[in-house]
Amino acid sequence: MQIESKRLLLVPISPTYREIIFQEFTPEVTEYTYAVPSADIAQTDKFIKQSIQEIENGTELILVILLKETKEFIGCAGLHAINTNTPELGIWTKKSAHGNYYGREAISALKAWAEENLDYEYLRYPVDKRNISSRKIPESLGGVIATEYDKINLGGKRLHTVEYWLYKAIKSSSNIDC
């Protein structure tokens, strides 16, 4: 299974990417995320193993983001709780890839995949209120802020979360009788 966009290829997470994930999931990248960097590669291995199990169970879709042409690693994207009517989108990209709109492109492709393959009411996209770059992703896709709350991340840091809801695109029909 893979999802393609203009510049990106999203493929299921696998141990192939363990070292690059461990290397690129840094404190700077995770400043506003719920997850925190792994203290050692064994924690990354555990995350990958758990992610693969959740994919097999049909509860999560955890993907690695690659540049289509070169297969360069860009980051990871996820669609969590896919067995519910309100799945949650998540993404991180390595620091050197920031500013290229890869996150927007990856989430847009993942949302399109969800519209074709999942039955849901809306997709949730929680993001720290201070993370302006990440907030632009759901806003570019028509997401609306539905709720705000504080959440403590895995490192004990308080996140001031705004949660966007992204609804399915309305498909128009060109054969409407007036």
From TrEMBL:
<dbReference type="Pfam" id="PF13302">
    <property type="entry name" value="Acetyltransf_3"/>
</dbReference>
<dbReference type="InterPro" id="IPR051531">
    <property type="entry name" value="N-acetyltransferase"/>
</dbReference>
<protein>
    <submittedName>
        <fullName>GNAT family N-acetyltransferase</fullName>
    </submittedName>
</protein>
<dbReference type="InterPro" id="IPR016181">
    <property type="entry name" value="Acyl_CoA_acyltransferase"/>
</dbReference>
<dbReference type="InterPro" id="IPR000182">
    <property type="entry name" value="GNAT_dom"/>
</dbReference>
<feature type="domain" description="N-acetyltransferase">
    <location>
        <begin position="20"/>
        <end position="171"/>
    </location>
</feature>
